[in-house]
From TrEMBL, chain A:
It holds the Pfam family MRP-S28. Residues 166-237 form the Small ribosomal subunit protein mS35 mitochondrial conserved domain. GO terms for molecular function: structural constituent of ribosome. The gene is MRPS35. GO terms for biological process: mitochondrial translation. Residues 23-33 have a biased composition (Low complexity). GO terms for cellular component: mitochondrial small ribosomal subunit. This is Mitochondrial ribosomal protein S35. InterPro entries: Ribosomal_mS35_mit, Ribosomal_mS35_mt. Residues 23-46 are annotated as: Disordered.
Automatic annotation (TrEMBL), chain B:
Its main location: mitochondrion. The keyword Transit peptide applies. The lineage of its organism: Eukaryota, Metazoa, Chordata, Craniata, Vertebrata. It comes from Equus caballus. GO terms for cellular component: mitochondrial ribosome; small ribosomal subunit. Residues 36-59 are annotated as: Disordered. This is Small ribosomal subunit protein mS29.
Amino acid sequence: MAAAVFPAWLALQPGARTLRAFSTAVSPATRAPTPSPRTTERTSKYERPLRRKALPPRTEKMAVDQDWPSVYPVAAPFKPSVVPLPVRMGYPVKSGVPMAKEGNLELLKIPNFLHLTPVAIKKHCEALKEFCTEWPAALDNDEKCEKHFPVEIETADYVSAGPSVRNPKARVVTLRVKLSSLNLDDHAKKKLIKLVGERYCKTTDVLTIRTDRCPLKRQNYDYAVYLLTVLYHESWKTEEWEKNKTEADMEEYVWENSSSEKNILETLLQIKAAEKNLEVNKEELLGTKEVEDYRKSVVSLKNEGDNESTLSQYKESVKRLLNLT
Amino acid sequence: DSSPLQRLPCLDAGHFLHTGSQAPQNLAAHLDNQVPVESPRAVSRTSESDPAKHGEQHEGQHYNIPLQDLKAVFPHGLPPRFVMQVKTFNEACLMVRKPALELLHYLKNTNFAHPAVRYVLYGEKGTGKTLSLCHIIHFCAKQDWLILHIPDAHLWVKNCRNLLQSTYNKQRLDQPLEASIWLKNFKTANERFLSQIKVQEKYVWNKRESTEKGSPLGEVVEQGITRVRNATDAVGIVLKELKRQSSSGIFHLLVAVDGVNALWGRTTLKREDKSPIAPEELALIYNLRKMVKNDWHGGAIVLTLSQTGSVFKPRKAFLPQELLGKEGFDTLDPFIPILVSNYNPKEFESCIQYYLENNWLQHEKAHTEDGKKELLFLSNTNPGQLERLCAYL
């Protein structure tokens, strides 16, 4: 009986040690040796609490068209035996492949959105629909939305289970508006852009005001709307000191009264003087087509910077102006 | 008249030196009816050594400048690597290229009654702006213009020792060394004019010396060279007089400045109390700025922008507005910008042929198609880069 259970390797032990060897044979490596007296208890392998064999993972029993949101109803860590996908993640060793999903810590570390599949989101939407109102049928494209509702307000609400319902992040309010939908003339627009500074994006023409200085969301919203109103009205006013705007403050190059205009005027006057043609006046000289072309080329050169097309345009216009072939 | 050196079929360098020292005129008539050159040389060389006659058909070909002309016209104007090349090959050959041809065309049609037109050569590093400028200067020298050549304006805004307070204007600073070096070279280049042009006012140098009205300009230059203290003022006077008198029609004036973006940048110079000096506080720069304005007539102004040697400018900058800055652009406006670009295939081929003829490329693969392709790739057809690469072969 017991002798038959002896593992083969113990047969090599000398016979004098049989009893102790026997008691140690009772406890294989995976289990701590029980401090029971050696001779009395002869626990057999059949009476020990049997260690269950590992069952096949649940993925093998999953149907293809099962209800996935019920497998992952909430945000849960990645369970390799539950997710039926053969995902691999990790840095491969040399001539190897990334590690499989069983026992993969990398897959556990990253956030997974298995609880937010499109099916699940559809279900959420269905559940939320009874709390929503209909989208107005008349606003069926973006331009109409922009036209009727130029100001966009963004707020975030946070729900969590905890001792308090309040979340300080919920007070942030972002107000976005396109400047083209505001009634601003040239001076007002430039002044507004200078006033807001970083908050204006040139490529999309969107002014973004983000407020969070008040403790409550509705206070922040009022403050954002107040800021917009103040900016609008202030940019329409012209102050005394705005007359001192220098060339360095200008946002774009203005040709009138610039040194370029003066230079070209002097040059043209000298040319005319050389040809003994003294009865010309400034406006006439500046009104010719060549000067107009020259003006356009200089403005584009200054505003867009140097590139092949602007430089060649400038060259052509100067050549025509100075009558060089 | 075409240089006789090109008609000789043999490539012996010793021969060039020998015939070059004799008067070219004697040989010209006698060699005129020689057999025309064989084809590799036709690609890379032309016999037309008068820049006035250079045209589209000469594009890509090298023309020869006789060595004694070189010393007379370019006492200080050539880039240092080119000077080394001239010394090695014993001949000075410049390639005729499109930007220079364009400029020559404009210069030939200059209307001397109109204000001087400004031409600005710009381009990336090593594309040949300075040598194009030298081509133009050679043309103007042959046409008997007075050449006012400042070889590198950057030298006047950096590494200058011995700045003195200007005697003429207390606010400004003098640079005696640079001014005297320039005056010496100016004298070499324009000897014949210095006795013809007379100053139109009296200049008092100090208690004992003065230059009377009506005395030749050469005296002012001499004074600047001998009395180094007054060199900067002498330069200022020369510039002023030339500007005033070019309109009178006795001579045509070519103002050629290399690295003109130095005039409007920053300097690396500091006063004794370590405060930085602005360019306009240097008398040389101040007077030169007046020279490149177009309020005079009777000549032309050819300028080059250069990043090499410039201070406080990024390495990749080569476009006019980047290098000139706002102030420079506004002062030079209106100008004709002329782009100098890398070699096109024909010019590249011609350059390689020139090096091969002079036995400069010693590598056995240099004349093969593969070798040329490799050089093309490595240098990206940039003339300066190609020259440096070929120096190793």
